[in-house]
Design brief:
304 residues, mainly alpha, globular
Length: 304
């Protein structure tokens, strides 16, 4: 693997984790956001200097991600990206004061184990088989149902959250829904990175505009902004972001392998490691708690 591709992935981890934590810190001081009023959501976000700083960090992470996808296979890139969950957990605790349960910490360790299995399935020759583009029909057959599923799941979580006397959600359904959107976005970023070239910029721009990649990016970027920020305001970053990242990772590796034609290992051991890592990540996702533990009621005051 080219060293600068790995370095770009690690830099993207730092930028993404920092951006999410800054945005979460900013969201705590903003009025309650609602997906029913997306224009108001955007207006409130743009009024916060701290949120803008976080979004700039995420934008820089996006630029680093473009460099990663030009040099590393999808499975390797996602393996490094998800390792950034450890940094996010530390920042959430130090900056936001969020406390994770023992079960959630064990889940983070299991996710990292899943990534170790996936990365262990890679070899040096895999880095030379970096695909550039995907057939538009195949990409859309994957992307459109996934986007619909993400929006339906988010809407269902919203309806359940509005019910009275319901335990506060830990954010897992929100994280899964946004993860599906960002999984499609990740495939689009991969496609954009493959079409970017400095040799013939006008031809590359024309080819890019004829592809579905920029339009998928616009939709997932605008929709993901409203949905992710609303969910991040309501739920802990240390739950939302790991779940979202896990879903994005599994989706990108599984569907990106099909869409871009990056081959799975032919060796049985390497194939078992890659599929086993994916299975562990999915099982961790299913085992995460769906609700936060409600705060205990204060003891009644004693009468004198």
């Amino acid at each position: 693997m080219p060293w600068w591709g790995v370095a770009s992935a690690l830099l993207a981890n730092v930028l993404y984790s920092t951006g999410f934590v800054l945005e979460k810190r900013a969201l705590t001081g903003l009025p309650a956001l609602s997906t029913r009023r997306p224009a108001r959501v955007v207006r409130e976000l743009l009024s916060s200097p701290l949120w803008l700083a976080g979004s700039l960090a995420l934008a820089a992470g996006f630029a680093a991600q473009l460099a990663v996808y030009r040099t590393l296979p999808l499975a390797a890139a996602q393996g490094i990206f998800v390792s950034g969950l450890v940094l996010l957990l530390l920042l959430s605790s130090a900056v936001l004061g969020e406390r994770t349960s023992g079960r959630e910490r064990q889940s983070i360790v299991a996710i990292l184990l899943a990534l170790v299995l996936v990365v262990a399935s890679l070899r040096g020759e895999d880095a030379g088989a970096v695909a550039r583009t995907a057939p538009p029909t195949t990409l859309l057959l994957i992307a459109l149902p996934s986007l619909a599923a993400g929006l339906l799941l988010y809407g269902s979580a919203e309806r359940r959250a509005r019910r009275r006397h319901r335990l506060p959600t830990a954010g897992v359904p929100y994280g899964v829904a946004v993860g599906l959107l960002y999984g499609v976005s990740s495939l689009a970023i991969k496609g954009v990175a493959g079409l970017l070239t400095s040799h013939d910029i006008p031809a590359a721009a024309a080819q890019l505009l004829r592809s579905p990649y920029p339009y998928l990016l616009l939709f997932t970027g605008a929709t993901g902004l409203v949905l992710s920020q609303t969910a991040l305001q309501r739920c802990r970053a240390s739950v939302i972001v790991p779940v979202c990242t896990t879903v994005t990772c599994v989706f990108t590796v599984a569907c990106g392998t099909v869409a871009f034609g990056e081959p799975l290992p032919a060796d049985p051991l390497r194939l078992a490691l890659r599929l086993g890592g994916t299975a562990v990540a999915l099982s961790v996702l299913l085992a995460l708690p769906r609700h936060d533990t409600p705060a205990p009621y204060p003891p009644p005051a004693r009468r004198s």
